[in-house]
Specification:
single chain, alpha/beta, Rossmann fold, 8-stranded mixed sheet, two-stranded antiparallel ribbon, 12 strands, Prephenate/arogenate dehydrogenase domain-containing protein, NAD+ binding, 6-PGluconate_DH-like_C_sf, arogenate dehydrogenase (NADP+) activity, TYRAAT1/2
Length: 370
C-alpha cells in the first residue's frame, strides 16, 4: 500500500538527521514514536529514533523591550484633567494624546463621543473626575466663566499637591482667582499658548508659548519635575517658550492681541472682500479677518474687560484714527481754499507772514522783486 511504503522513508530520514547533527536539537523536547495504522506491515518508530527539536528563535514569555518602553511611558506620563472641553480644549487634548498622557475630561456639554475617539475618559460630574486624583487640572474655560468653574471644583477630593494650570488669554485675572480659591498646598502655573485651532492647525513650530511659574513646591523634586513634563509637551511640539510674569504678559498682550482682535473685528464690520486685484497687504487684512472672526465675542470682551491695559489701547486707537482724519481733512481744506481764492489768497498769507513792526509801530514793507 501507499502508506506502508512511506513509513520506512520517514523513519529512515528522521534517524539520519538525528545521527548526522544531534547538537541542533535540544535534549529536553521529544516527539513520541508515530505509527501509521493504515497497514499491518508498517512498523512503528523505535525509541532510539526519537526526534529532538530546538527552536532557534523561540518566543519569549514577554517582549522585554516593549515592557521597558511601557514602563518608561508610565513613569513620564501625566494624568491631565481638562475642565472645559470646548473647541480649544479639544485642540490641546490631541497634542496631549500624542505625548502619551492620560486624559480626564469634563465640560457642561456632553463630549463623550469625542473623548472615546481620543481614548480618554469623560465625566459629566466634576466630583467623579476629582476622585481620579489627576496630576494636573487644566482650566480651559472662557474668561467670563472661570470664577464660576473654580468655585464648583471639590478641592477636598484632589491630592494636596495637585498642579493647577490655566490657558486663558489674560494672566493677572486667573492668577488672582487661583490665589483666592485654591488651597495653599496646590501648585499654580499660568500659561498662554498664543495660537489657536486656526493658527496652529498645521504646526506649533515657532509659535510663542508664555508661562509663569506662580507657585511651586520647590522643596519637592517630584512636583518640580511634573511642571517640567507639562511644559515639555509644548517644547517638544516646537513652541517658542517664553517665561515672563503675568503683569508683563498682559501689558504686551494688550498692545498685540487685543489690538489685533479689534482691527480684525473693525474690518469684518467694514466688510472687506477679496477681489481679482488683491495686493499682498490686502491679502494680509483678509487673513486677519479670517483668523479673528472664528473667535467668539465673549473672548474679545474678556480681553477687554479683564486686562487693565486694554482700555488704554482702545483709547489710543481712537485718538490715532481721529488724528488721521484731521490730517486728511486739513489737507483737503487747503486744496479747497486754493481752488476758491486762487493765488491771491496765497500771496496775502505770505505777505502777512513777513510783515514786521518798527519801534514806533509802523509796518516794514518787504523789498519788491525786480
Amino acid at each position: 500500500m501507499l502508506f506502508s511504503s512511506i513509513t520506512p522513508r520517514i523513519t529512515a530520514t528522521a534517524t539520519a538527521t538525528t545521527t548526522a547533527n544531534p547538537s541542533l536539537l535540544p535534549h529536553s523536547t521529544y516527539i513520541p514514536s508515530i505509527s501509521l495504522p493504515f497497514s499491518s506491515s508498517s512498523k512503528p518508530l523505535r525509541p532510539s529514533s526519537r526526534l529532538r527539536i530546538r527552536a532557534i528563535d523561540a518566543a519569549q514569555p514577554f517582549d522585554y523591550e516593549s515592557k521597558l518602553q511601557s514602563q518608561y511611558l508610565q513613569s513620564t506620563s501625566l494624568k491631565i484633567a481638562i475642565v472645559g472641553f470646548g473647541n480649544f480644549g479639544q485642540f490641546l487634548a490631541k497634542a496631549f494624546v500624542r505625548h502619551n498622557h492620560t486624559l480626564l475630561l469634563h465640560s457642561r456639554s456632553d463630549y463623550s463621543h469625542i473623548a472615546r475617539q481620543l481614548n480618554a475618559h469623560f465625566y459629566t460630574d466634576i466630583h467623579d473626575l476629582c476622585e481620579q486624583h489627576p496630576d494636573v487640572v487644566l482650566i480651559c474655560t472662557s474668561i467670563l466663566s472661570t470664577e464660576t468653574v473654580l468655585k464648583s471644583i471639590p478641592f477636598q477630593r484632589l491630592k494636596r499637591s495637585t498642579l493647577f494650570v490655566d490657558v486663558l488669554s489674560v494672566k493677572e485675572f486667573p492668577r488672582n482667582l487661583f490665589f483666592k480659591y485654591l488651597p495653599q498646598e496646590f501648585d499654580i502655573l499660568c500659561t498662554h499658548p498664543m495660537f489657536g485651532p486656526e493658527s496652529g492647525k498645521d504646526s506649533w513650530v515657532g509659535l510663542p508659548f508664555v508661562y509663569d511659574k506662580v507657585r511651586l513646591g520647590d522643596d519637592d523634586e517630584e512636583r518640580v519635575t511634573r511642571v517640567g513634563r507639562f511644559l515639555d509637551i509644548f517644547a517638544n511640539e516646537g513652541c517658542r517658550m517664553v517665561e515672563m510674569s503675568c503683569a508683563e504678559h498682559d501689558r504686551y498682550a494688550a498692545g498685540s492681541q487685543f489690538v489685533t482682535h479689534t482691527m480684525g473685528r473693525v474690518l469684518e464690520r467694514f466688510g472687506v472682500e477679496s477681489s481679482p486685484i488683491n495686493t499682498k497687504g490686502y491679502e494680509t487684512l483678509l487673513d486677519l479677518v479670517e483668523n479673528t472672526k472664528g473667535d467668539s465675542f465673549e473672548l474679545y470682551y474678556g480681553l477687554f474687560m479683564y486686562n487693565n491695559n486694554s482700555l488704554e489701547q482702545l483709547e489710543r486707537l481712537d485718538m490715532a484714527f481721529e488724528a488721521i482724519k484731521k490730517d486728511l481733512f486739513g489737507q483737503l481744506h487747503q486744496v479747497y481754499r486754493k481752488q476758491l481764492f486762487g493765488d491771491s489768497e496765497e500771496e496775502k498769507r505770505t505777505h502777512r507772514s513777513v510783515q514786521k513792526l518798527l519801534p514806533n509801530g509802523a509796518h516794514v514793507e518787504p523789498p519788491k522783486e525786480s
